[in-house]
Specification:
The chain is built from 9 helices and 12 strands. It starts with about 30 loop residues before the first strand and ends with a helix. The protein folds into 2 domains: about 200 residues, FAD/NAD(P)-binding domain, CATH 3.50.50.60; about 90 residues, D-Amino Acid Oxidase, Chain A, domain 2, CATH 3.30.9.30. Strand 4 and strand 5 form a beta hairpin. It is an alpha+beta fold.
Length: about 350
């Protein structure tokens, strides 16, 4: 029998300066309301930067709810940085008739992440469902998959996660209903079946297999951009969907929420305790234009899908490919914040005629 030399995997290793480096205490106290993607990212990054953090969250439990959430490479770089203390990449494996184990190295962290959130939107109404059990989609039996179907004013996305043990789907379609009563309410299987009538039998069967109690409608409604993300005295900031809700077709809502948190922590680090208000103002200037430009990509993608010219697509299938633009994905928000901070601060000072 070979005995593994790796640490126990039942208890996460204690964070040390080598595995989860933190800067010296800044004496800045950050109060975060809401443990969403933006709030948790801000909390982790502020902790790394030496700030004291308090997080307030009204929900007593973190539960999977609704939509399919994805993270672009612009935000996955943050996970890679954080997870060093709980991850290992195993380089050798030993087995015997009585035991097996990892030898050394770090395992690559991975898996499905699912969450729910109210995106910004258009005149679409999204029905979200979750179906537990195998067999609904062939790919689910073989592992994780993400499949999409597109039609006039409708698109349907289905994701199999956890090795095919769970599935979720979202159907976005044109809707003329009222939103006076609620942003979210129970959905009806028969309503979705009417929307996908005549579609791929795979889609129809997936909808039929969805437990009715797990189907919800989420209204997606356009919002005008907020004139500012910060309070008049620059001591409070809105981040994530609270500041800039995204259409799901942007595929950047969660990533931009995370960028908000990373950049805010970096700005506070650059400014220091005596200039918190300066940091908040610089943060807003750095983030404002970028998030609004990326919001527009969601509108463009939805129109590309819902108003597709199928004759043209048959001639050029690549015209339907997602535009994975480098200025969005090949972007290090933290490095950019540190690089631009001083120039943005000087720009604000020049505009105001006084120091921030």
């Amino acid at each position: 029998m070979t005995t593994p030399t790796s640490p126990s995997t039942t208890t996460p290793p204690t964070a040390t300066p080598a595995t989860f480096p933190r800067l010296s205490p800044s004496n800045i106290h950050v109060l975060i309301v809401g443990a969403g993607f933006a709030g948790l990212t801000a909390a982790i990054e502020c902790d790394r930067k030496g700030h004291r953090v308090t997080v307030l969250e009204k929900s007593p439990h973190l539960l999977p709810l609704g939509d399919i959430i994805s993270f672009g490479q612009n935000s996955s770089r943050f996970f890679a940085k954080w997870l060093r203390r709980v991850s290992r990449r195993w380089t050798r494996w030993c087995t015997s008739t009585t035991s097996s184990g990892f030898i050394r190295g770090r395992a690559r962290w991975g898996g499905g992440l699912r969450g729910g959130g109210d995106g910004g939107g258009g005149e679409a109404d999204g029905g979200c469902g979750a179906c537990c059990g195998g067999g609904a989609v062939e790919g689910a039996e073989k592992g994780d998959s993400h499949t999409g179907w597109i039609g006039e004013d409708v698109h349907f996305l289905a994701a199999a996660i956890k090795g095919g043990k769970e599935m979720s789907w979202v159907c976005t379609h044109k809707d003329e209903g009222s939103i006076e009563e609620s942003w979210q309410f129970p959905g009806k299987i028969e309503d979705v079946l009417r929307v996908v009538e005549g579609w791929d039998p795979l889609v129809v069967e997936l909808v039929k297999l969805t437990p009715p109690e797990r189907l919800f409608y989420y209204k997606l409604v356009f919002r005008d951009p907020l004139p500012t993300f910060i309070s008049p005295q620059a001591r409070t900031a809105l981040i994530g969907d609270a500041a800039h809700p995204f259409l799901p077709t942007s595929i950047q809502g969660a990533s931009q929420a995370m960028e908000d948190g990373v950049v805010l922590a970096a700005c506070l680090d650059k400014a220091g305790k005596g200039k918190v208000q300066e940091a908040v103002r610089v943060w807003e200037r750095i983030r404002y234009e970028r998030v609004h430009k990326i919001q527009q990509t969601g509108v463009a993608t939805r129109e590309q899908w819902h108003k597709a010219d199928w004759d043209a697509i048959w001639k050029d299938p690549e015209s339907m490919h997602l535009k994975r633009e480098a200025w969005i994905l090949d972007f290090d928000a933290e490095a950019d914040a540190y690089a631009r901070y001083d120039a943005v601060r000087e720009e604000l000072e020049s505009e105001n005629g006084v120091r921030s």
